[in-house]
């Protein structure tokens, strides 16, 4: 291949390869226990896989309708209504997406204009900032304070300016496992109710919430829901992150703008998988057991490392556990995560990667969506550090 003779001007100066790609690649190369990138190492439901196969055999192999098949949108609307109380019209207020990442990208590119400000909470999922930047906006990063990583709403108030277009919230929160409370949501409501600020509520871990807490979806709060996009991921709920399926719900006026972009971004998403999900989602037993299932994994992992030198507070949601390694090493978290993957054969994610300025709190993130065997093997290594 001849080399391109010019130097293209980069639209994402300084962007590095995503930490999730970097750490999973290293874990594979080094044959390490991979507790880094967030995905299960156990199978998705055979019943769901059979439904996809059936849909393919029945001929659902061409483009799906642009916003998603109606039966899936209806099943999503019914689920949201049952769990959180708000009615979304499947015709105009729900769109099926290629995972939550696409929904987030499409929302931002449909609504954020040049020099608009978007408030995010750090540590923050890595796609938010580049997505805002690519679309001409600026992120205003508010740092959540360790060890509880709660939101200081007075600080949020002081960061709101006439240019604030959007606030991105994420509950349960990746990577800290923090969960927003009803009080948090009421404070957010008070801050935005007389403004034109749009909320992007990233709820991909809505069913991964522990210790009998209740998920405070944006859809429980009508005044918030009125000005919000709710983003969800089937990959997280049904153990198949590789299918890249999710959805977005929001009021018709916002969803109309979303679809203007969605149709040119992906047009529509995987048809046979939508057919399968439309049926599978109808059985609430397919997701209501998730808190118990993952809490048992969290507890198994934490119990196995209780005598290690790590300091931790049990994760309250998501399938991530933060471990503070400051009693073991003073090394930079990125350097250490790589070293432990290569030398000790256990991979994690350095939390500094979730900050724009790479704040290093000497904390690593471990994913416990793994078989018990994998978790115990990982714990054995961590106990020796
Ligand atoms: N938001 C958060 C907070 C995440 O952790 C992830 C990773 N799954 C996503 C969005 C993206 O989800 P998806 O894989 O469905 O694109
Ligand atoms: N959400 C997953 C995580 O936090 C990874 C998603 C991705 O690889 N882009 O590990």
Please, could you describe this protein's structure?
The protein has 385 residues and is α/β, with parallel strands linked by helices. The protein folds into two domains: 19-44 and 288-384, Aspartate Aminotransferase, domain 1, CATH 3.90.1150; 62-285, Type I PLP-dependent aspartate aminotransferase-like (Major domain) (Aspartate Aminotransferase, domain 2), CATH 3.40.640. Helix content is 39%, strand content 14%. α7 (182-192) links the parallel β5 (164-170) and β6. The protein is globular. Residues 18, 20, 37-38, 174 line the site of glutamine. Glutamine is lined by residues 18, 20, 37-38, 174.
Q: Could you provide a short overview of the structure?
A:
This protein is α/β, with parallel strands linked by helices. It is built from 14 helices and 12 strands.
Task: Please describe the structure with a list of short key phrases separated by commas or semicolons.
385 residues; alpha/beta; seven-stranded mixed beta sheet; 14 helices; 12 strands; binds glutamine
Gyration radius, in Å: 21 Å
The top-level CATH class of the largest domain is Alpha Beta
- CATH fold field value of the largest domain: Aspartate Aminotransferase, domain 2
How would you sum up the global shape? globular
What ions, cofactors and ligands are bound? Answer: 4'-deoxy-4'-aminopyridoxal-5'-phosphate, glutamine
Classify the beta-strand content into a percent band. Answer: 5-15%
Largest pleated sheet: 7 strands, mixed
